[in-house]
Amino acid sequence: MDRQTGIIVCTCTNKGRRHDFRIYKESKVRFASSVLIQADSGYQGLQKMHSNSQLPLKSTKRHPLTKQEKKSNKSLSGSRVLVENVIRKLKIFRIVAERYRNRRKRFGPPLARV
Predict the structure, then answer these.
(1) Looking at residue 106, what is its pLDDT?
(2) What angle, 0 to 180 degrees and rounded to 10, lies between the N-to-C axes of helices 81-92 and 67-79?
């Protein structure tokens, strides 16, 4: 999603239940190395494919997160709120799950009225 305009840049869908990261890997969609990818913790291993990516750190029983790591995770999640809200809207209105059945004229962005 483009933060300035709020436009969704790319979507990938798949029939059935598949993990988001698996769909990403199979889609062969790749971003330039200058693009920063901020993903959730489900995308563990993304750093191997794209070096300019940010993921939240995970804690374990033996290695709990420090205050600095928690602060880093909070700032990352704060910047991802807009993206998560758009994903929520897509899911609520089943935009990606179902076929668009209206006229093509209504599909695109609204035209500027003069």
Answers:
(1) 63
(2) 50
Strand partners, 53: 37
Q: Taking the CA of residue 114 as centre, how many other CA atoms within 13 Å lie in the half-sphere pointing to its CB?
A: 0
d(Cα 33, Cα 105) in Å, to the nearest integer?
Answer: 36
Q: Does 56 score more than 90 pLDDT?
A: yes
Tokens 């959730």 locate to 40
Separation of alpha carbons 11 and 96, rounded Å: 8
End-to-end alpha-carbon separation of the chain, Å? 28
Q: Classify residue 106 by its DSSP letter.
A: G
Residue 63 binned pLDDT confidence (cut-offs 50, 70, 90): very high
Residue 39 falls in which region: left (phi positive, over 0), alpha (psi -120 to 50) or beta: beta
| pLDDT surpassing 60 at residue 42 | yes
pLDDT at 30: 85
Radius of gyration of the chain (CA): 17
